[in-house]
Amino acid sequence: MTQRELTKSRAIPGFSVLKMKQEIQDKNYQETKDMTTEEHLAYIRKGSEAFRSEMASRRTEREQ
Question: In angstroms, rounded to a whole number, what is the distance separating the alpha carbons of residues 38 and 44?
Answer without folding.
Answer: 10
